[in-house]
Amino acid sequence: MKKLKIYLDTSAIGYLDEETSPKEMSDMQELWELIKSDEYSAVISDITLDEIRQNKNASKVETLLGYIADISYERISVNEETRKIAETVKQNGMITADKHYNDRLHIGCAIDSECDVMVSMNFKHLVNVTTIRGVRAISILENNRSIDIVSPVSLIYRDKGDD
């Protein structure tokens, strides 16, 4: 089976060090171990790295950048195509507030880099039925690869023949 290419947004990576949510932190750390063991092919954008660096908690920034340094990943930048996809997301009534522009750019980066899955813990704007269906529709209309938006737990629990 082909290895899935996964885009990691800022919220997902942030849960690697989120002690106030131990279950979610544990799930993300388990996914991280799968990424480290080359189970998945990771993609991280400049947006994600910039958002992490903008965190006011210097210790958290250092911790998260340390995690990132431990994996192999493809680093991508925003380009004209990612901006176009972000605008299409807005025009189709999803994530319309300008203050959430980076959420739209995350979608654009994930689609433009031909990821199979976008991993997020942003349930308000990204990991919800409206956005997931809308992004699939946009992908199809724009002749891009269909992408799933999921939480980390969707990638760590899979059948390994241990029934």
Helix and strand topology:
Layout: E1 5-8, H1 10-14, H2 22-36, E2 41-45, H3 46-53, H4 58-69, E3 73-76, H5 80-91, H6 101-112, E4 117-119, H7 129-141, E5 148-150, H8 153-156
Parallel strand pairs: 1-2, 1-4, 2-3, 4-5
Helix pairs in contact: 5-6
As a percent range, the share of strand residues is: 5-15%
CATH fold field value: Rossmann fold
What low-confidence regions span 5 or more consecutive residues with pLDDT below 50? none
Principal-axis shape equals globular
Instruction: Count helical runs.
Output: 8
Q: Which superfamily, in CATH terms, is the homologous superfamily?
A: 5'-nuclease
- The second-level CATH architecture is 3-Layer(aba) Sandwich
| Amino-to-carboxy terminus distance | 20 Å
CATH class: Alpha Beta
Tally of distinct domains:
1
Please identify the structural class as seen in this structure: alpha/beta
Task: Evaluate the radius of gyration.
Answer: 15 Å
On the 0 to 100 scale, the average pLDDT is 91
Question: How many distinct beta strands?
Answer: 5
Order of helices and strands: EHHEHHEHHEHEH
Main sheet specs = 5 strands, parallel
In which range does the helix fraction lie?
40-55%
Strands side by side in the biggest sheet: 3-2-1-4-5
